[in-house]
Amino acid sequence: MEEAQNNLSKSLEQFKAVSTERDLLKEELMKLKAAAQVVADVVYPVEETSSISKSLAEHLREAPQKIASFLTDNSKQYVAQALGLVKSYWPSVRIELLRDGMSVECDDDKFAKYVEEAEPVAEQIVKMLDQ
What we know:
4 helices, mainly alpha
């Protein structure tokens, strides 16, 4: 009888430990779900998700591609804006030469200096575009 009592006590302790762990995992799951929902809401705005019936997990699996696409599209727009500014000052400049990257006559060190020189101007252009 005493052995059965000991086994019952151990089982109750194990049950309490498992129950406590389950509650902690449940709480962590709720926090992760809330954080994931924030990401999904950024990537898939409310008006977009109302017409699409996908689970949170499906939205999260698609999020990297959607974010990459967003960044690519915005980068294209920013580069086009910057090149448009260049053309506004020098209409005869041949911007199609830029398609192949930096000039073969320009080494990496010189290019790094040009980029460093351009950073404050780029910052101003981005501020202007954000307005």
